[in-house]
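FAQ
Q: What does a multi-component entry look like?
A: The components come first, one per line:
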Amino acid sequence: MAPRALAATLDTLSTSPADDAARGPARLLDVYRMLANVRQLDTSAVAWQRQGLIPGYAPMLGQEAAQVGAGFAVDKTRDFVFPSYREMGVAYTLGVNMVDYMSTHKAIWHGGLYDPVASHFAPFQAVVGGSVLHAVGWAHGQTLNGASLGGLGVGLAFLGDGASSQGDVHEAMNFAAILKAPVVFFVQNNGWAISVPTEQQVAGGSVAARAAGYGMPALRIDGNDVLAVLEATQRAVAHARAGLGPVVVEAMTYRRGPHSTSDDPGRYRTLDDEKIDGGEDPLRRFRSVLVEQGVADASFFDKSDADAQTRADEIRDGVVALESRPGSEMFDFVFQESTPTLGAQARQWREESEHV
Amino acid sequence: MAPRALAATLDTLSTSPADDAARGPARLLDVYRMLANVRQLDTSAVAWQRQGLIPGYAPMLGQEAAQVGAGFAVDKTRDFVFPSYREMGVAYTLGVNMVDYMSTHKAIWHGGLYDPVASHFAPFQAVVGGSVLHAVGWAHGQTLNGASLGGLGVGLAFLGDGASSQGDVHEAMNFAAILKAPVVFFVQNNGWAISVPTEQQVAGGSVAARAAGYGMPALRIDGNDVLAVLEATQRAVAHARAGLGPVVVEAMTYRRGPHSTSDDPGRYRTLDDEKIDGGEDPLRRFRSVLVEQGVADASFFDKSDADAQTRADEIRDGVVALESRPGSEMFDFVFQESTPTLGAQARQWREESEHV
Amino acid sequence: MSESTKSATLEIVRETPLLQLSMQQAINRALGEILDTDDRALIFGEDVGLLGGVFRVTDGLQQRFGANRVFDTPLAESGILGTAIGLAMAGFHPIPEVQFDGFAYPAVNQIITQLARMNYRSRGTLPMQVTLRVPSFGGIRAPEHHGESLESLFAHVPGLKVVSPANPQQAYHLLKHAASMPDPVIFMEPKARYWNKAGVDLAADEDIASLEGSVIARPGKHATLIAWGAMVSRCLQVAELAAEDGIELEVLDLRWLKPIDEAGLAASISRTRRAVVVHEGPHTIGLGAEVAALVSQSCFDTLRAPVERVTGFDVPYPSGDLEDEYIPNIDRILFGVQRVLEYRRG
Amino acid sequence: MSESTKSATLEIVRETPLLQLSMQQAINRALGEILDTDDRALIFGEDVGLLGGVFRVTDGLQQRFGANRVFDTPLAESGILGTAIGLAMAGFHPIPEVQFDGFAYPAVNQIITQLARMNYRSRGTLPMQVTLRVPSFGGIRAPEHHGESLESLFAHVPGLKVVSPANPQQAYHLLKHAASMPDPVIFMEPKARYWNKAGVDLAADEDIASLEGSVIARPGKHATLIAWGAMVSRCLQVAELAAEDGIELEVLDLRWLKPIDEAGLAASISRTRRAVVVHEGPHTIGLGAEVAALVSQSCFDTLRAPVERVTGFDVPYPSGDLEDEYIPNIDRILFGVQRVLEYRRG
Ligand SMILES: Cc1ncc(C[n+]2csc(CCOP(=O)(O)OP(=O)(O)O)c2C)c(N)n1
Ligand SMILES: Cc1ncc(C[n+]2csc(CCOP(=O)(O)OP(=O)(O)O)c2C)c(N)n1
Ligand SMILES: [Mg+2]
Ligand SMILES: [Mg+2]
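Then the predicted structure of the entire assembly, as tokens:
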């Protein structure tokens, strides 16, 4: 499971001009701060579930580098992210309102309360592989709109190793390559789909390796090295932005926690497995880099971690304050233009349930 | 569109002991006879449609070498073929009752009247890509049964270049590779899916090239060279039979006729295109080989062609004689064990339609 | 719905000669106008480009509007629908085609879990103006899966609207209307009627209200036949025959299969007091069950006989040779009429 | 169906102590017995192996029967069903699991165009003994798509049989019965009831007839509540409450959603003369429409009020917080009962 850097057709991917800036010290500190925020919020959310504040949560412990690294490569003025259900770290990095994001885990609204259009972050979505094609369609729309100065908007589809087995993902890759759509398929290969390890899921062992079959470049990277992820995603985005077509990025990472708060990983893997397969904690790895490069010291980390705690507490307060949406919204959002049948049902619901 | 032989991972595929026998003169003559039969029946069926004897037909003109070659590689005592709707030549080669096969084109029974179990040839099936997974399941069943003397029964899934775009085909390849199921995915890449050319269909240009992504060997062959097809399919079958897992065979061929008798290819390709892209007629090619090798002469060809005509005429008589199935069969075959609702509907149908 | 009657009348009283178009031509014309007036509109699917679709419904559109606006996709229905959803998220107005009804099944996951819910999931911020054209129903002696009735499946799904035209005039106007709606609409084209010509008044669409709800295709007083798609003309034939025996059947063309025009149904049946619903799809949990349930409730006091359902049987759609045994034919509809007319309380 | 009453009675009169099992345990036990007695039986799906399924329904079975008989598949529902069909063609008896109802949609194409038609297409030579287990319905405050009601979709499809148990006793016996049938059966497990324990008589399955059709879960005379799955226990609660006011409600547990026990429905409602059908799925073209249509026809003369339908609304299944507003709750069912009891012909 040790992730190894594998650059399938790296050469075809131009280096983006942003790469150097990405490595500037200020940016590096931003990246760390975000990693700390995400780690803290993720840990907190698990605690909230234990405390009964939210009914469930899907932790992304261990995938912070993959998600934050990818998130930093997104231009949120013109790109659009199509997440699944475990992309809290991408959302955070993109600046999605995290109380509104967490509302879905509080069972308030399935898609989350945030505004996907303003956030450039599609609604939270639980059908595995379900949103990958949307990224392709959206991206093809950017091609049809024509490139503005600086290139095309890029659609980023986030999917897991498990999702790669879905027929929709194949259809998406084939459509994207045929349409030359500006899409990045960002695969977080975290070793598991609930209890099924990648070896029993991904024949051939690598999602990135499938890209060649569509004539598409791919990057397989160490998904726990946040700078490697950032750089690879930037290169992939730059490639797509330039109108050169889709790219697969497979970030090799590890789901260090349970699949969700109702999962019991002890049934299918041992703590020893987790320790060996998980490798070094991505935050600790990045901390070492920053220290080695002399960019940050203990006080910076302490401060960042404390700030992250503060932000998580603020988000917690927001989540606690979130009230159920009025039942009438069940009817309000079905259509843009409601129907007589639905109107009658809403009226009956009000009479019988709200007694009005 | 010129088909070129491309042996993706040919080396991993052992040569089957049958290869030499396949090249023995008697076998070669059998192969030609079958090509002639198939060509004649196909041409006849188009004529039947023009004469109003059958409402429609999907010609396989130009794909005779691919289908007969593949058919000759099947062991019909233990393998099982999963066709789509254009595999008349495979059916013929396997010894399926061709009147019963043609019944589906006469709109008598969707799946055909032949016995799929006895024929080792699954029912005629029109959902593009729909039967590919069945081959995988059936093949996995052979693994579960355990190899008998001589190895496993092999499932052969027949699909087109168009079908390769379906999500189901991806799921099938991934399942097969994960399960190491004894399946051969036999792709007839005939250049077209109705009006859509392969370039707009198969990103990357080759279905065989996708196999590597699943860790699966593949053979891409000249599908108009009947011996190349026979040999490649035999090798693929032998590989699967030996328990070494699935193989993709992509036979590059050309749909020389319309998609179906209601299609008008003039709308999307010119006669010149057809001439150039179609290449030399596969029957003529094989005839040259036989003549060069001194295996056959004009009288053999004349005799074979005349016999083929006789057989086609016999089949025609059979098809003419086919009567509609009684309407009661609509109800009889829904379930093995019918239901009260269905019984009541059948009774009402009899009263109102048969006036009994 | 009073508008319904009005629009039906319209066809009778107008004086300028009507354009004679087949439904296939009427739809083609409507699509051309939609592409002309709405530059966010895109048509795509299998073989809709150069070929003009296997039914020639998109004939000439790629030539006219270019391969950016009208394009062929790979052969993958889930891909077509999923791409349409993404395009709608990008602000486009996709008008995808599924080549035959039976090949909409591979797209059901995208239709139900994504297309129908995106507006809801996004709290109205990502509307799905997607007009999905599906050549539908049987009657053309086609291969398996080329003639199915998916209206029960579609119309059951919250978040979808479903409509089916019965004649070229309706096809032209309902498609333009459906395409103007900011919600996903499934437009079920009765392929058995593609080639029948009839008069079309291109200018009759000023009144949007006349495009909503059902219409009375033929007024009558002894019983109401409720139908949609290709069954409307069959019911009109039945009404013609019954009239020879002095039985005046009203034919209600439902048109919108979701939302269902409950008021229109109730209005007709409270007058005729007897109802027969006719459809091609399987009987159990067919749309006919909903119609029967609605009418049995809204006209409980006035109904003089149980609502009859003359439908396809609970069997897979049979091969061409048996299709006339499966699709409600004139005899079977007449038997249904007879049952409601002869019913006496026990 | 007289057997129904018999089996209901059985639970009351028997004397030996019953095993207390949850439905999840009862199904697990049935699966173990099926694997034990039928060596063609195979269980597969996502996470059914080592994990024992996300609901632990297959707990311990891989350990007991080995990874050839009980195995995890890649995450692809169409793949699971398509493979099941091929295995059935090879003579096996697949018992696949779809992890949650909302994830059956990707498999709909294989279910409708292949599983449901293979016996027909092959003229009975390729029977599809496939028992598809689908954890179904809502009520567990789950993420999106984890609580849906697909019975209307499944039961509409010719070639499928559909059954849903209401309690552990039924789950145990109906699953074994379904698995013994040579046709495809969709077994819809009401996940909200997985953890409720109740008495199970393992030996009560000698009489196959008692496993067919509906059962009267509680006899009554003023109106019949018709329900299935998790709604049966809710209706029993309602009946309990109504009894305090002297209203005796009969609760008919439909059990088989296809074929529907038309005779059982007619028998109950011709006695009570009033009917309320209760289900979680959306209203329009829900299974409730079929039940209402059937009853309105078969009991036309005896019905004293229109059949009421208390159902989910025509909206996408809402998030956990609103789920009690969506699923028929006791209040809404009581309103429905009130309407049928207070109805007076106008
Ligand atoms: C279509 C579909 N099938 C099944 C599920 C149930 N399910 C939820 S997450 C999951 C595993 C997903 O694995 P992967 O794609 O690797 O993502 P990860 O959970 O590792 O982030 C499964 C089976 C689902 N949500 N959608
Ligand atoms: C799922 C599905 N979608 C669409 C169709 C309509 N259709 C029938 S054949 C065909 C083209 C198939 O192309 P290919 O797989 O290359 O096979 P070929 O016809 O060339 O033999 C299409 C689109 C279908 N039968 N099934
Ligand atoms: Mg994973
Ligand atoms: Mg082809």
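Q: Is there any commentary attached?
A: Sometimes. For this entry: Residues 118 and 224 of chain D are 38 Å apart (CA to CA).
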